[in-house]
Design a protein that fits this description.
Layout lengths: L2 E6 L4 H10 L5 E4 L9 H10 L2 E4 L3 H11 L3 E4 L11 E3 L6 H7 L2 E4 L2 H15 L10 E7 L4 H9 L6 E3 L9 H8 L6 E7 L5 E8 L11 H10 L6 E3 L17 E7 L4 E8 L3 H16 L8
Helix pairs in contact: 1-9, 4-9, 5-7, 5-8
């Protein structure tokens, strides 16, 4: 019997991409509500009840409000609302032991886009003892404008904003709590994101003076070895040699994540993660988590 899946918020950017990834699968039956009833609580409650798993593609407050409607249906929440909340399993399968936890979970909080790139870099270095928990971590990044939701998409498409700008200048980006929690950081990192005039795609950078890290080994080799060991055999994450230019759009419409170690070979290092903010950073990982929860191949539909 196919697994019945309800996407609450299927008309949004993430919801549409999840629907596209699931609609052709014989092992999935999509449950929907009439477009005119998408805000009708009774109709949504019925859809939750009919589903084996529901995926919330809603703003944070709306995602919280949806929980009472869901009853006992297993949930994947693509919003920020529950990523560090008690009773929720963090939906980043690449973390140690996390695939098994997700498979058994009733409620999964999908990892954020910037958090995906940041944690993908930081956690292996923490596990290998390369990066101390209290290190003065510096992260930067750029994303396509689709990560800003409907209003930002409209602003870029209408030419009302610059082609490139920085934001979250007060160091209050909403992904920082999950980055700290799942990278095992004790000190809040400096994190400076930016938006570019392209629809989707993302690059995240960690900047290091490697010769100031514990262990007395400067340069790329120790950092790259930690990444390769952590992701050995992973179906979606690869450590690559990226060349002199890195295109944040190079993995669009995939669930892949590429890591590369850049720098001068003398201790100044930048580790770069490239991913699709709407794919691996949102809808792709939601499908990956769904696959784990229903016992399907992790790569199905991806």
């Amino acid at each position: 019997m196919p697994t019945k899946v309800f996407i609450d918020g299927e008309a949004g950017t993430t919801g549409l991409q999840i629907r596209d990834r699931l609609s052709a699968r014989a092992d999935i039956e999509l449950v929907s509500v009439d477009p005119d009833q998408r805000k009708d609580e009774a109709a949504r409650r019925d859809a939750f009840a009919a589903a084996d798993v529901a995926i919330l593609c809603l703003p944070d407050d709306a995602a919280r409000a949806a929980i009472p409607l869901a009853g006992g249906t297993r949930l994947i929440d693509a919003s920020t609302a529950h990523r560090v909340a008690d009773g929720w399993t963090y939906g980043m399968p690449e973390l140690p032991g996390q695939r098994d936890r997700i498979a058994k979970a009733a409620r999964v909080a999908n990892v954020g886009c910037y958090a995906t790139g940041s944690i993908a870099i930081l956690r292996p270095l923490r596990e290998a003892g390369v990066l101390p928990a209290d290190h003065g971590t510096v992260l930067t990044g750029i994303s396509g404008y689709s990560g800003g939701g409907k209003s930002m998409i409209a602003d870029f498409e209408a030419g009302r904003v610059p082609d490139h700008f920085l934001y979250a200048l007060a160091q209050g980006h909403k992904h920082v709590p999950e980055i700290m929690e799942y990278s095992h950081l004790d000190r809040k990192p400096l994190f400076q994101p930016a938006v570019g005039n392209f629809a989707q795609g993302m690059a995240v950078q960690l900047h290091l003076h490697a010769d100031l890290l514990p262990g007395g080994v400067a340069g790329h080799a120790r950092i790259e070895a930690a990444l390769r060991t952590f992701y050995a055999g992973d179906p979606f994450v690869s450590v690559v040699h990226a060349g002199d230019r890195i295109d944040p759009q190079s993995l669009n419409n995939t669930n892949k994540l590429h890591l590369s170690v850049q720098g001068d070979g003398a201790g100044r290092v930048t580790v770069v993660a490239v991913l699709d903010n709407l794919g691996k950073g949102a809808s792709g990982t939601a499908v990956q988590n769904l696959n784990l929860m229903i016992g399907a191949e992790e790569t199905a539909g991806l």
